[in-house]
């Protein structure tokens, strides 16, 4: 009986992680790549930042600037900040989510 409880607990934990991260699962990274190319790549080539040093999209910079989550990136893309334009009037929430997931994916892969 104890083994069944352990299996149930592990299954439940996996389910919570997947459901809690459902925005990442639902994201269309191919669409995110297209949106990034059209709207972001001019200022963020290869995950860098030609406007503000230290505000790039590499994993270390995202972590340092507390932008290493889908929610944080989505909020920044939507609302903008300082020199970064807001895109909430140009992109849907789904498109913003797609590009946020794409950025995190690229950061994890070293922008290769």
Description:
Helices cover 60% and strands 0% of the residues. The protein has 6 helices and no strands. The protein is mainly α. The N and C termini lie far apart (48 Å). The relative contact order is 0.16.
Number of strands: 0
Rounded to an integer, what's the Rg over CA atoms? Answer: 17 Å
Global shape: elongated
Quaternary structure: single chain
Q: β content, as a range?
A: under 5%
Number of contiguous helices: 6
Summarize the main sheet: none
Kindly report the average pLDDT value.
Answer: 86
Structural class: mainly alpha
The secondary-structure element order is: HHHHHH
Kindly report how far apart the N and C termini lie: 48 Å
Helix content range of the residues, please?
55-70%
**pLDDT under 50 segments (min length 5)?**
none
Descriptive labels:
112 residues, mainly alpha
Write the layout of secondary structure elements.
Elements: H1 2-20, H2 22-26, H3 29-39, H4 59-64, H5 70-79, H6 93-108
Helix pairs in contact: 3-6, 5-6
């Amino acid at each position: 009986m104890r083994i069944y409880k352990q299996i149930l607990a592990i299954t439940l934990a996996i389910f919570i992680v997947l459901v809690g991260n459902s925005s990442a699962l639902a994201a269309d990274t191919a669409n995110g790549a297209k949106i990034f190319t059209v709207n972001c790549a001019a200022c963020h080539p290869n995950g860098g930042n030609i406007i503000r040093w230290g505000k790039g999209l590499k994993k270390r910079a995202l972590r340092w600037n507390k932008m290493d989550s889908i929610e944080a990136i989505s909020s920044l893309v939507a609302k903008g900040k300082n020199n970064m334009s807001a895109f909430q009037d140009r992109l849907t929430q789904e498109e913003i989510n797609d590009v946020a997931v794409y950025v995190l994916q690229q950061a994890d892969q070293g922008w290769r």
